[in-house]
Amino acid sequence: MQITKVLFIQKEFENIGIEYLSANPKKNNHQVDLVFFPFPISDIKENKIISQKISEYKPDIIAFSPFTSHYQWSLSKSRYIKSKYSAIFTLFGGVHVNSVPEMVIKEKPIDGIIIGEADENIVTFANTFKTDYTKTPSLWYKNKHKIYKNPLSKLIEDLDKLPFPDKELFYSKMPSGLTSLPYTAMGSRGCPFACTYCSNNIYQKLYLGQKRLRYRDPAKIVDEISTAKNKYHFKRVEFSDDVLAVDLKRLAKLTRLYKRKVNLPFACFFHPQLVNKKTITYLKQGGCDWLKLGLQSANEEYRHKYLNRHETNLQVLKVSQLCHQLKLGFSFDHIFNLPFETSQDLIEAVSFYNQCRPSIVNFGGLMYLPKADIIKHGLASGDIQKKDLPAINNGSHKLSRQYNVPWYSYKQADKTTNTSIFMLLFILITLLPQKIISLLMKLQVYRFPFPVPNYIIVPLKIISKLVSGQIYLYKDGIRQRIIQFLASFQTI
After folding, report:
1. Which of 152, 193, 422, 488 is most exposed by smallest CB count within 10 Å?
2. Does residue 157 lie in a domain region?
3. Please, are residues 456 and 488 in contact by the beta-carbon 8 Å criterion?
4. 276 in the same domain as 137
5. Do 256 and 376 reside in the same domain of the chain?
6. Residue 323 domain-assigned?
7. Where does a domain end: 92, 120, 149?
8. What are the angstrom distances between the C-alpha of 250 and each of 268, 272, 287, 407, 461?
9. How confident is the model at residue 413 (pLDDT cuts 50, 70, 90)?
């Protein structure tokens, strides 16, 4: 069997999807390597590093797995690679590709794409590389300017047959100052929900009629983490599952084994509809110190109509009370600039969050992901126009970028909302007594007409993280900035 060399290129973040895509080809005797840019450097330096790696490693395939916010960057790197190494096959996959495959495959520097989950398909592609592309399910490829589309493969039902993710791929490239980052684990794939703003909205359409939510054996999950703990000596774990567990028996087994064999603090996501006292108890006993709850809006009627979220505020309040009773830290996620959102919606959010008293309210601006159902609401509200769709679909629109949050104002339905004052109030909920927040609302401080500057917002947000016990997130960020600063003095 031929040995195929694959080179992934990734910026900013460890990508657990790429780690799984690396593990399976390696298990099947192929070679996989990575060029990783954990912090920004100049385009010229990036290209020089990529070119040097290609010259040394001589890959057959260069692969990218970008989110929409990184798609344009990945495309520019692909253009550079094809301009110098035209014979190398450039392969794209991931969330953005699954959203708009017809657009991605037409890009000149892209030779092929794999749609959907590619753990097994990338092995087939490596096995038959340059001999028979028709054998790889879910592969779209070009041949003499013609596009060929192989049928979509079915989802993998048994996740336990997959090898553990190849953590070494990223950890070996991680700057020494960032090695204390939490270990990222996944105990499942898929989500039982399909929120209109989320990438799971895309996967639901892609795999319509198939069982998308699948779970790994808790013993396998714990074996992976305990083995990695002995090797990498991390201090906490972050489960990135959309919902860590639906079944209580499975959660009880997972947390019991985790406590016995790993015994590190961990954080995880849960949906308010799936949490009760037993859930919180199992999590707390297992070592969970942080529960993440998506909410996005405090208006339950709005959530139902525009976000396809069906939890009630009473359910959210009960979860909050349980977390307080068992002294479990928890956060709410909130999205600003939602279609048809008004100042009154945000006023209600401050009051409701102040009633629930989460440890942190995480917030950001709405990102319009290509083909997500939220787009139809954005068009109806006038927040985006049809002329914006091409830019949204190729990741170049300002509302497609992960960090381009319009801090102070946007096209709210009443045109008068000062978004920054609500950001400030969300932070103050975690710092000031409940009665003080209620007083501020009675005084209608949300009518403050001027933007609250970042030099007030950012330090207060850091203080709130410190108070809640999440300062470790910023320690790693500070280390990253120091490393970046020192690296700027080095010549490459």
Report:
1. 488
2. no
3. no
4. no
5. yes
6. yes
7. 149
8. 15, 18, 16, 41, 36
9. very low
Confidence check: pLDDT of 459 > 60: yes
Q: What is the pLDDT of residues 35-72, one digit of tens each?
A: 999 888 999 999 999 999 999 999 999 999 999 999 99
Q: State whether 185 and 135 are in the same domain.
A: no
**Mean of the per-residue pLDDT values for the chain?**
91
- Whether 478 has a pLDDT exceeding 60, the answer reads no
pLDDT at 199: 87
In a domain, 452, yes or no: yes
Per-residue confidence (pLDDT) for residue 489, from 0 to 100: 44
Who contacts 260 (Cβ-Cβ below 8 Å, separation ≥6)?
Answer: none
411 has pLDDT over 60 = no
DSSP 178: G
Instruction: pLDDT band for 202, please (50, 70, 90 cuts).
Output: confident
Q: Are residues 145 and 171 in the same domain?
A: no
Alpha helices, DSSP H only, in 189-243?
A: 200-206, 218-232
- The DSSP string of 252-314 is HHHHHHHHHHT---EEEEE-GGG--HHHHHHHHHHTEEEEEEEEE-S-HHHIIIII-----HH
Q: Which CATH number does the domain housing residue 457 bear?
A: 3.80.30.20
Number of domains in the chain: 2
Shared domain check, 220 and 132:
no
Cβ contacts of 200 within 8 Å, gap of 6 or more: 190, 191, 193, 194, 242
Say if residues 383 and 339 touch (Cβ distance below 8 Å): yes
Q: Are residues 129 and 191 in the same domain?
A: no
pTM score of the predicted model = 0.90
Return the structure tokens found at 280: 């919180």
User: What is residue 451's three-state secondary structure?
Assistant: coil
Looking at the structure, do residues 134 and 171 belong to the same domain, yes or no? no
Residue carrying the six token digits 């996967």: 203
Domain of residue 105, residue span: 5-149
User: Domain for residue 491, yes or no?
Assistant: no
Q: Classify residue 113 by burial, with Cβ atoms within 10 Å: 0-12, 13-18, 19+.
A: buried
What CATH number does residue 123 fall under?
A: 3.40.50.280
Question: Which tokens is 418 given?
Answer: 């000062």
List the structure tokens of 307. Answer: 């976000």
d(CA 162, CA 21) in angstroms, rounded, equals 10
Residues 141 and 204 in one domain: no
Q: Looking at 117, 149, 181, which one is the last position of a domain?
A: 149
Instruction: Find tokens 């159902």 and name the residue.
Output: 373
* CA proximity to 352, closest of 310, 304, 296: 296
Based on its alpha-carbon atoms, the radius of gyration of the chain, rounded to whole angstroms, reads 23
pLDDT reported for residue 415 = 54
Task: Mark 331-346 as b/e (b = at least 16 C-beta within 10 Å).
Answer: bbbbbbbbbbbbbebb
